[in-house]
Amino acid sequence: MPTYARAPMSFVKGEGVWLEADDGRRYMDLGAGIAVNSLGHANPVLIEALTEQASKIWHLSNLYEIGPQGELADRLVEATFADTVFFTNSGTEACELAVKMARKHHHDKGAPERVEIVTFEGCFHGRSSAAIAASGAEKMVGGFGPVLGGFVQVPWADHDALRAAVTDRTAAVLIEPVMGEGGIKVVPDHCLKGLRDLCDETGALLVFDEVQCGVGRTGKLFAHEWAGVSPDAMMVAKGIGGGFPIGAVLATEAAASGMVVGTHGSTYGGNPLACAVGAKVVEIIDDEEFLGHVRRVGGRLRQRLEGLVASHPKVFAGVRGSGLMLGLESRVPAGDFVKKGFEAGVMLVPAAEDVLRLLPPLNITEDEVDAAAALIDEAANLMEEAAK
Fold this sequence. Notes:
19% strand, Aspartate Aminotransferase, domain 1
């Protein structure tokens, strides 16, 4: 179905941060499949993990114990706030479960009226019926009515509106610690702490969507760690599979108390192939030396981008983001700049507010960061020439 405005390029091979098109041209991929290829293209360690598992068992129903699933769940529980994990195939499926979990939690505690999920304007939690209802934006819900009820959107950074929206009907507050599709907006640490306090005060669950900003992307294993707070539940996907489809909901035992036998399920969720790869990804990224590398190269990339803003004031307005989840604020339509990037041999991802997302593999090197800045500089020159 023609639901994608695809770029006229087809790739046949990838290695690290580079992609090769069918015409032989090489491109630096600073989108990483939208924060998915967390360890780059064709990572040999992940290939080994996948092929080793593929030679044993591809699929088992969740009617049985799945060894790699248990290993990955144990790793995530050990590394995070969570007591329990449910594996899905995507971030959208994780959103569906998070919504069900929050409502079932309150239902089983004797408050079935607590069904509302408070979200924030500009958010993106996927494209299922629940996820588009969480967004509430016309571009997401238009034509897909009736829209699933029980979602309340509040303006970004409007604390009074937020407090007014959280009532005795609120099941949960759902937020991305770093908004991705919405334009690389970082929720300040004190705001995440305030949300934790508000949820504790009102009995609402706090749910973080770390599908895009998690798994090392900001220089911590998960972005909320910078604020020193923990959610009751968290959605994860994208980078945790390093390119293999997998998602998850992590939760405390209390938050997940309503999810008992028969309340949820998945045919493919937590399959051996995905979990074998995911376990290796987490093993690599959940390492202080590796996360230190992300912070170091993220700082270098930000410095290079700030230099580009100074060099091209008619093209760029500023830099936002954290770690290796950075956004270049563009004074020209982001889609137009992405096309100039293709001409220069660099791939960027547009977001809301004409922000150009940079989400490179987390193992990008300092030399590759410098090369990336040079290619973006070339693209900016092409944009300026086109404007003459």
